[in-house]
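Q: My labmate handed me this sequence with no annotations at all. I'd like to see what the chain might look like in three dimensions before we decide whether it's worth expressing. Could you predict it?
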Amino acid sequence: MRFSGLRVLREGLTGNKGWTPHWRDPEPKAEYDAVIIGGGGHGLSTAYYLAKNHGMTNIAVLEKGYIGSGNIGRNTTIVRANYFLPGNSEFYSHSLKLWEGLEQDLNYNVMHSQRGLINLFHSDGQRDAFARRGNAMINQGDDAVLLDREGVRKYLPYLDFDNTRFPIFGGLLHPRGGSARHDAVAWGYARGADQRGVDLLQNCEVIGIDIENGKVRGVQTTRGAIRAKKVGIVVAGRSGQVAAMAGMRLPIESHVLQAFVTEGLKPCIDHVVSFGMGHFYISQSDKGGLVFGGDLDFYATYAQRGNLPMMEHVMEAGMTLMPMIGKAKVLRSWGGIMDMTPDGSPIIDKTDTEGLFIDCGWCYGGFKAVPGSGFSFAHLMATGTPHQTAAKFRLDRFRTGRGLMDEEGTGSQHNLH
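A: Here is what I predict for the chain of 417 residues:
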């Protein structure tokens, strides 16, 4: 089933009776060439690119819940490529290019909107840091514009520029940054993978990983044993738990990150705005809801819900930056489990077990990385060699100390990245 304007018109005029499910509901096979543990955005995109780019179609994606029930549906939907350090810079630049062609590639409307992202700064030191970051982005081939105070006012006139504690000095505009509909990204990749023969197995929890003589042989699941020549672990906040099934101890801590959405409002925020002092970021969805978030809850947990003090902190930051949103009613909140590494950068690598691969440690950057992560992880699983854009995301950097990428310069503390 292919989507087109003509198809939508025809279905609308004929009672919408011709639509079919986006993906099948198959029974597990006894054996696959590759199994992906985790049916979130990264797992689905990995399966999609394995099938599309490498011709591997005897693949299963194992999801313990339903498609879209994890972090892919629990984020603030921001897409950007404004990284500073080598390693991260080229990866997120590549991922953004994939975003820009994603809807045509998937034949699916993921509502990708390049409305522009503005990071505000509030001191001379922050201005210098953002100037360096902007130059790094331009050198990478991406876009960045350093705005002064009046330049920001032109785009965001509703901000409190004269706030005594956090006066706005300017901002770094990333015009190609923006947002996308998170659920649609999962659905689009799931549909694309299914059309290429990938089995999407929902309610199929992995409870063990079979290893013989240093080689992976398959997995044990709640729907029976499945043999596989290759196994990829892509489970975000659950990475430590699943890797432990293979005898691994990852340098990962899991922390909850909350997000919030208000009632629908008339269009009032055209960009994605990030508050440099309060760690607050906000955009407005196509339905009118204000979607915003803040910092981690600062304690390790596997719970998909946050605490009240951080909720209050996020609301205070929002009111400090843009008092106009004070009367908006918050409809709901949710928490995603972030897989935090000590240096704040991800891992895409082989493991010491032959045929077992790991993709994790995305910290705050998981959603925008979905296309790039799947593309690179598929390349690694299919060819056995890392893709050039993800070559620095090695697991052993945490053992040797070589190649660490501390993007925020906060040191080796998971919850500060």
